[in-house]
Structure formats: C-alpha cells, structure tokens
Design brief:
alpha+beta, OB fold (Dihydrolipoamide Acetyltransferase, E2P), Trna Endonuclease, Chain: A, domain 1, Endonuclease III, domain 1, 4 domains, seven-stranded mixed β-sheet, six-stranded mixed β-sheet, 18 helices, binds adenine, binds iron/sulfur cluster
C-alpha cells in the first residue's frame, strides 16, 4: 500500500483522540490522527512524523498522520505506521497477490456475519474464510501486544469467529504488526485480560491466530514476515532471554558442566537427585574415575557399584543405571542414544533426567522439571497449584517446552536450576533483589513468594522401631547382607531386629542365635528418614565369647578396616559405624 504526497513534521501535542498539533516547516498545524488507540508511547513531543496531504479540499484538516519514528532503547530508530485503515488494506493486497491463502477467487472487505462486521471474507473453490484484521502499534523491546486499550469490540469479534468455525467456516485473527523486526506477538493482559482469554479460547476452538510484521517506509507499508504468536504464558516467554544471559555470567563452575557428554550428565543428574551439589562433587569424580564409560558401568561388579554409591542413598537408582548401561550396550552398541524418546525409554530415566540429558548433552529443547524448577516457575507465574500433583508437573513441562529457545536448551534449563539453587531458594525468603527475572515475577508483584509453591503433604511416613546390634568378636564385627529385593537391597548392615529391645532381651536374643554374650553395652539412639519409612533405632554393643560361638545366622565377622574398604553400608547406620570406628565418606 502506497501513500501520495508524504511530508515530514515534528509532533507537538495531541489535544484529543482525533487530532494532533504538528510542526510542519516551522508552523504549528492541526492534523487528523488516523488511529483512535492511545499510542502514548509513540506520540511523544519532538517525535518525527510523516503526514499525507489530503486531496479533499473540503476537509477541516489538511493532513493525516501516517507514520512516526520511535527511538528504541538501543538508540536506533523504528518507523511505525499508525494508520488504522492500513492493516485491512495491506492484508487484502497481500491475499490478492497469493499470500496466506492459495487460490483465492474472491476477497471481499466488510463482510457481515452474525451481529458483527468481519474485515475480510475470502473464498477459494472449496473454502470459505473469515478474517478479522487487527493493527498492532504497541511495542516494547521487540515484544508487540494488542490491544493498547480495552476493546470489547475485539472480544466480540473473536467470539464471533469461534462460532463461525463451528458453522463450517475457516477463520483467522490476523495481527498486522505495523513495523518491522519484532520478536513476537502476545495479547495484552495488562490492558485487557478478557481479550487474551477470548483469543486463547478461539484458538482452541479452531480459529487460526497469525501475526505478520510489515515493511514500513514514510510512504508505504506491506506485509513482510510471519511473527511468532504467544497465546499462553507470556511470562515464561519473556523470562528466557534474561535468564540465559544471567546464567552465562553467574554459573558456578561444576565438574559436570565441563564437557557435558551424555554419560557425564546422566551420572551427575542421578546423583544430584539424592543430595546437595557440594556433597555430589567427590562422589561424582570418584565414580567417573572408576567407571568412566557406559561400558565400564555395564560390566561393573555389584559390590563395586554399591560401594561407589555408598552414602548417597536410593541404591536402586544405581542398579537401574547399570541396567540402562547394559541396555545401551545391547540396543545401541554402547553409543548413548541421542533422541529424547530413546533416552526416556532407558531404565530408571524419567522425564526430568531425560530432559536434562537431552538438553545438556545434545541441545534438544526439552524441559527438565525437578522440585527446584517447580518452585521457581510456580513463583514466577504466581501459580498456587499443588506441585505434588503429577498433572501440575506435566502442565509445566508442556508450558516450558513451548518457550525453550531452539538454540539455548542447555543454558535455559541450567539457568532455571541455577536460579532455584542460588537465588529463588526454598525455605524462606528468596533473594529477589538479585533475580534476573524479578521484573516479570508474579509472586514478587503480589508479595507471595514465601507462600509459593503450594505443596500438599504426601502420605505420612511409616515409623519403624529397630534395635541395632554390634556383635563384637575380639576386633571383628558381625555384618550381614540384606536381601536382594526391597529397601537397601544387597547392601551390608549390622544385624538388627524390629522393636526396641531391653538389655535383658538383647542377652536372650543373642543366646537364642548361638552367640554367648560376655558384656552388653547400651549405645545412643539414632533416627534415619527414608522416603516412605522412618527408622527409630536403639543400639547395643555385644561382646561375644569367641570360643562359644555357633553362628546360626549368616553373619560375617569382619575387621572394621576391611568393612570400610570392601562392604557398602547404608548411611542409615552411620551413628553405629562411626561408633565402631568405621570411617565413611
Ligand atoms: N541440580 C540438579 N541438576 C543440576 C545441575 N545440572 N547443576 C547444578 N545443580 C543441579
Ligand atoms: Fe524467585 Fe524472587 Fe525471582 Fe520471583 S523475583 S523468581 S520469587 S527470586
């Protein structure tokens, strides 16, 4: 679309919606503003504008305001067309030239449908298409939004289109961005949340929502390029850039972040699910030294494996890792699979770990949502949904997947993890003053960061009383292997029995299993919390007579130093291993 007789001017003032005062060649003139929107951020005193001289001699105002130069934060200039009649015209011209809809046989403006007038009606041989066109001039840092003031009419239009789809029409809401080079379009939830909702519902109902930016010059405007449309979670969309920039400057130097191949990422992420970053470091280095490859892990002896995991807890995780490693050897000839689906199908790898490996090792834009990410994102979006619910996690994964930059999967996910670890911390006040996305954060805006995330209580843990017995035969101590299934499967432990025994009961019990107690000593009590069970332990040291020992149980009597080196004992027994002089990491 072209304009004739364009002249420049300088904006002075806008006394009402319809007119503006413009300095044209040193003279203050009254011009018509062809846009009833506010455009407050565009029409600033001193702004350079472009005007079209009217060819109608009877008009009160001789000029129409067509375009305005807007200074960007980077100091460059963006030319914005603000003629509200232009969008309809440019879309019509573009469709007539073959844009958007192939094979249009009819393009008709101002079509009456129901109680609304729809901007364009297009027909092809088989299709009947309604198109509502909205001009967009509101832009901040490359993000464009609509409307810039509440618009009930716009809500009505999109609802009408949704109804039309049910009647067998195709329908589009077409946002014409009246400028060039923007990042994305999103409905303006600040000015009119109801429009954002109506647009989302229309999209769900089959209305296509598209946005195109325009090549704009002082005397012309035409459709240029499609612009992404973000209908949901504008906060998450906005957060990506500042989060990633912050991560690049603030990331901690952690061993698994150096040359992150899939195996290294995998080992670290499984360990990090169990304990703090600082504690993981030494375990991680040792594990990779001993088992540097998938193949080494696949071939490792069970006892070696358990020993490397000793103290980390959840031993089934490392057993599953070994099964997965064996699976990789067989199914992928030892090469770590490099698609999300294949990684996710490995034993013991859930959505979080699959996302982390995919993103960190292969740059695949998949989310990695753990408890920390649930907390950070719930706060950012002000969500009070229960993060213990699987459905809430799933929704968050879907929302994040839509906003992960295609070329920044690793920094995006690591950034969220890092933010949760050092800024948006759990248990108490997050450090919002240091947060790179504080300007977007809903919880901060509402002052509710401490109440979020909402977390329902899981099932109460089962309490178990146990008596731990340190049978001592001279220097050697009795240990036994736990069953190969269930809690702490296959690990070694001090003999222990259900309930809290008295000294007398310990003596009786010892005799009943063929051990003759010489001296029994009461030890401290101890508590250990597993995910579903709590052990409340009491302990006894029982000196036994070496000569009168008929070991009816499968106890092994082993020297403490050897236990330390060769047998993995779960940290549930930590108090008693320490008492026995066995050092654990
Ligand atoms: N916690 C979980 N994954 C992590 C990672 N990759 N870096 C630091 N902490 C983490
Ligand atoms: Fe968390 Fe505060 Fe940042 Fe919000 S502003 S994400 S609550 S640290």
């Amino acid at each position: 679309m072209r304009y004739n007789s364009i002249i420049p001017g300088i904006f002075l003032e806008r006394p009402n919606r319809f007119i503006a005062y413009i300095d044209i060649n040193g003279k203050k003139e009254t011009v018509h503003v062809k846009n009833t929107g506010r455009c407050a951020e565009l029409l600033r005193p001193g702004a350079r504008v472009y005007l079209q001289e009217s060819d109608n001699p009877d008009r009160k105002t001789r000029w129409d305001l067509i375009a305005v130069e807007k200074e960007t934060d980077q100091g460059s200039v963006r030319l914005v067309n603000m003629d509200s009649q232009a969008p309809n015209q440019v879309v019509k011209e573009w469709i007539e030239k073959g844009g958007l809809i192939k094979g249009a046989t009819l393009v008709k403006p101002e079509y009456t449908y129901g109680i609304s007038r729809i901007d364009l009606y297009v027909e092809t041989n088989e299709r009947k298409i309604l198109i509502e066109v909205k001009g967009v001039t509101l832009e901040e840092e490359g993000r464009v939004r609509f409307p810039d003031a509440p618009s009930e009419r716009a809500v009505k239009h999109v609802e009408e289109l949704k109804a039309a789809v049910r009647q067998g029409y195709e329908a589009y809401v077409f946002f014409v961005i009246q400028m060039r080079d923007v990042r994305y379009f999103t409905p303006n939830t600040d000015t009119h949340p109801a429009f954002a909702k109506a647009l989302r519902e229309a999209a769900e109902g089959g209305v296509r929502v598209v946005a195109y930016d325009c090549e704009v010059s002082p005397d012309a405007i035409q459709i240029a390029q499609e612009v992404p449309v973000v209908l949901e979670n504008p906060i998450l969309n906005e957060m990506a850039e500042p989060l990633m920039a912050w991560y690049r400057n603030h990331k901690r130097d952690l061993p698994w972040r150096r040359n992150p191949d899939a195996y290294r990422v995998w080992v670290s992420e499984i360990m990090l699910q169990q304990t703090r970053v600082e504690a993981v470091k030494s375990y991680y280095e040792r594990f990779l030294r001993e088992l540097p490859t998938v193949e080494a892990l696949a071939r490792a002896e069970e006892d070696t494996l358990l020993k490397l995991w000793e103290g980390l807890g959840y031993y089934n995780r490392v057993r599953n890792m070994q099964k997965a490693a064996q699976q990789i050897m067989i199914d992928y000839h030892g090469r770590f699979p490099d698609t999300y689906e294949e990684i996710r199908s490995l034993k013991g790898i859930g959505n979080y770990t699959a996302g982390a490996i995919s993103a960190f090792a292969f740059g695949i834009p998949k989310p990695a949502v753990d408890g920390n990410v649930l907390r950070v994102v719930s706060r950012l979006t002000g969500s009070r949904e229960d993060i213990m619910k699987q459905s809430v996690r799933k929704k968050m994964e879907e929302a994040l997947e839509k906003v992960i930059p295609a070329d920044g999967a690793s920094d995006f996910n690591q950034g969220l993890i890092e933010l949760g670890a050092i800024v948006c911390v759990p248990n108490g006040e997050p450090k919002c003053g240091e947060c790179p996305v504080a300007h977007l954060c809903e919880a901060r805006k509402q002052g509710t960061a401490c109440e979020i995330p909402v977390k329902s209580k899981g099932k109460a843990r089962k309490m178990e009383k146990r008596t731990v017995l340190l049978f001592k035969d001279g220097q050697r101590l009795a240990i036994q292997k736990r069953p190969s299934k269930g809690l702490l499967a296959g690990l070694y432990e001090f003999p222990n029995e259900p309930g809290h025994m008295t000294m007398k009961e310990v003596t009786e019990y010892s005799k009943s299993i063929g051990l003759m107690p010489i001296r029994v000593k009461k030890l401290d009590t101890a508590k250990h919390i597993f995910s579903h069970i709590e052990w409340h332990m009491t302990g006894y040291e029982v000196m036994v007579d070496e000569l009168e020992k008929t070991n009816q149980k499968d106890f092994l009597f082993i020297h403490p130093e050897e236990i330390e080196k060769k047998y993995s004992m779960p940290s549930a027994f930590e108090k008693y291993t320490r008492y026995a002089g066995i050092k654990k990491d």
